[in-house]
């Protein structure tokens, strides 16, 4: 139990952080927002899954992926395929030339369900696919790249290219994937209508629970030897190798874990928003997800959630009232986070916190020990 | 390639970078429990030899046999597992982890992906860390972050990290560079102690230090061996005086 | 599984030959554009290690400058119309180089040791530039009025139709490549640039003003992108997001060729451009581009150093 407290919850300060987040997500937001806005928050929280993955991958392991949209999208499409098949029952589609297949296939004169879609008739398969498909792709790509020491900028550019490839591939195959419009008009999950308000509430809470679960899982990983190893790897990859570790396999592991989380986020997105399209898979959304993590503080798991909420809320607010201004702000945000706030919101929060600590510590002790106290406060008593 | 009871047998080792031969047909043999020092002018290829042994650089030709096992072409972490430890020229420790954590990461079990997830900081691990920390004069600094150590202490920590791995051959690149005379004294003691059950290969420039610890000295020049022998023999060798030591 | 539409039609052998020649030529036009873009990027990325995701926007800036010159000439100096284009290209170069220098001074120079951060910061810059284009020039695509001598095509045979603007773009690219080569490898400034990149401390010690050289190098790379943009106006219209259309391709070209190597960049842009135009002919629409991109990525995964890597002691 003590281990759980220390490692998964993060000791005293960690648990307080998780509890505050839980209170915000489970109590404060549902009570103060109407159903429509809460659904919006739910949507933002699905992006937070990707941001949390990026905290593990980028913040802690130093691997920047500009293509996390790939995994978000793959998870989303897997879930969408199941839901679309359910919504395209023979009963619902009797006006089509070929009933029983999704509408966009009918428009493309397709007469029978492509074999890729057939297994998605089963919910267990789709659920497994949501996590497995992104993980598998991440495993293949990661192994190919990391074993060959492709890292840093090269890796980032290639993930960008892969995001482009996937979004173009989906875009250009309307008969198979719904093309640019994506997969829309989703209705029920095993008979339960996901479009109703009550369903949206349930899905929102499910999303929050899974997100907190993802954060706790990440906390656990970071509390193990692997966590220390990832930090060491980020600092001095060569030294880690020469301490006897196969660096590539660790990068692959974290890449796969981040991919799986993103996939789950994508599936939850589809459930709450009701559609998926290649616009969520390509270069632009992938880089945006990076900024969510960066604004929160790329080494802070809780920060990732706050960063996602803040940036997306800002986006909704500004693009309604000042659409021209928004892109300027967004661009400026990228630059500001890199040059002025490298530790994001979490960094700002920490420095305010330590300033209070310093002041109260100094007040409490006699003058002679002031110097040591300042040193201690500066290191934050980090272990 | 011949059978050998040397711990390390390098034969005909060559590496060229875009035509420039940093190491040129080198033959070098190190016995068990030997402390060998490699000296030579800059650009002689000393660090490159260590790079080749530990796998940091790929050789163009030749063979490196460690305990009769060919090291060329092996992955770096596998070379480490076979018993070779390497210390770099500039202290290469994990700055944002504490001394304890630095040493703990080098503990040689639980190094696979799932091994690290399942690794437990048992009493055995803690005892070993404290033992090594004591021998590298950092027993009281276990909770200090690497970044706050002095230059000399960082060198010792790196040696400590290698000792944790319990290698059969330790390779040190300029271990006393930047150290005060007192620290050099302590390092010499440390090296003499740990040489008792392993071989050590050292690159150094400080001749006093070398004469205090070396069993045998190898002089490298332009990627080849210029001379080999005891410190006294080397110091009296004319070719070595011309090229490196001065008269 | 994947329904890849392939154009099936019957052609005479004469027509097939012509198709190949014209597609080959279209490939050459694409090659020239990619080459110009990649040249600028190779200088910035290959030489300095800076990843400029806003490189496409500098290209767009050059194109917009030509458009601006076209508008000014049409409205104020109509007699000048046939001659403005060459001057516009020069203007495009100067303006983009100046903006590049400003960006280096204000942002890039703080991020030299942090390549991943440069990536993000230049992405932010690209968003800002795109929105600036949108606000100033409008969201719709614009085209400058091209001079008479660029229009039309010449027909060596009845079935082969080679557009003049394509020839112009190619000629410009080759000229510029040659110019850059001579500058980098035969001039004193070029020597300073290469020296600074290879050994900053020594260059500084012998009196080279390394920060000025950095600014100059970055500005040069951007200037070349500006010329690419100017050339681009002869074969396509320019909109606020024209820059982002080619940025990924350009990076792949540079990485594929072995960053830092000019010969590699040339070979790489040629190969990729030809590959893309040929596959675009046989595979409909975007799938041609997808096929080419996938081929590049797969090859890069097998051989990440690119075509012409250099083995250096790190």
Global outline of chain A: globular
- The CATH topology of the domain at 8-92 and 167-245 in chain B turns out to be Rossmann fold
Count of strand segments of chain B: 10
- Count, helices of chain B: 10
Rg of chain A from C-alpha positions? 23 Å
CATH class group of the domain at 8-92 and 167-245 in chain B: Alpha Beta
Give the end-to-end Cα distance of chain B, rounded to a whole number of Å.
Answer: 40 Å
How do the strands line up in the largest sheet of chain B? 6-7-8-3-9-10
Average pLDDT across residues of chain A? Answer: 88
Q: Give the name of the CATH architecture of the domain at 8-92 and 167-245 in chain B.
A: 3-Layer(aba) Sandwich
CATH-level-4 superfamily name of the domain at 8-92 and 167-245 in chain B? P-loop containing nucleotide triphosphate hydrolases
Q: Going across the biggest sheet of chain A, name each strand in turn.
A: 1-2
Gyration radius of chain B (Cα, Å) is: 18 Å
Number of helices of chain A: 17
Beta-strand residue percentage of chain A: under 5%
Instruction: Indicate the structural class of chain A.
Output: mainly alpha
H/E topology pattern of chain B: EEEHEEHEHHHHEHEHEEHH
End-to-end CA span of chain A:
21 Å
Shape of chain B: globular
Describe the overall structure.
The complex is a heterotrimer of chains A (383), B (247) and C (314). Chain A is an all-alpha fold and 383 residues long. Chain A folds into two domains: 2-340; 343-383. Chain A contains 17 helices and two strands. In chain A, strand 1 and strand 2 form a beta hairpin. The relative contact order of chain A is 0.16. The model of chain A is unreliable at 379-383 (pLDDT under 50). Chain B has a domain at 8-92 and 167-245: 3-Layer(aba) Sandwich (Rossmann fold). Chain B is globular. In chain B, helix 3 (99-105) crosses helix 5 (123-135). Chain B has helices at 46-54, 76-81, 99-105, 113-118, 123-135, 151-164, 181-194, 207-213, 231-236, 238-245; strands at residues 8-17, 20-30, 35-39, 61-66, 69-70, 84-87, 169-173, 199-203, 216-221, 224-229. Chain B is built from ten helices and ten strands. Chain B is an alpha/beta fold. The longest helix of chain B is centred in the middle third of the chain and has 14 residues, at 151-164. In chain B, the strands form two sheets. Chain B has a six-stranded mixed beta sheet with strand order 6-7-8-3-9-10, sandwiched between helices. Chain B has a four-stranded antiparallel beta sheet with strand order 2-1-4-5, covered by helices on one side. Chain C is mainly alpha-helical and 314 residues long. Chain C has one domain. In chain C, 70% of the residues lie in helices and 3% in strands. Chain C contains eleven helices and two strands, in the order ααααββααααααα. In chain C, a hairpin with a 2-residue loop joins strand 1 (153-157) and strand 2. Chain C is globular. In chain C, 48% of the residues are buried. Residues 1-8 of chain C have low confidence and may be disordered. The chains are: A mainly alpha (383), B alpha/beta (247), C mainly alpha (314). Chains A and C meet through helix 6, helix 7, helix 13 and helix 15 of A and helix 4, helix 9 and helix 11 of C.
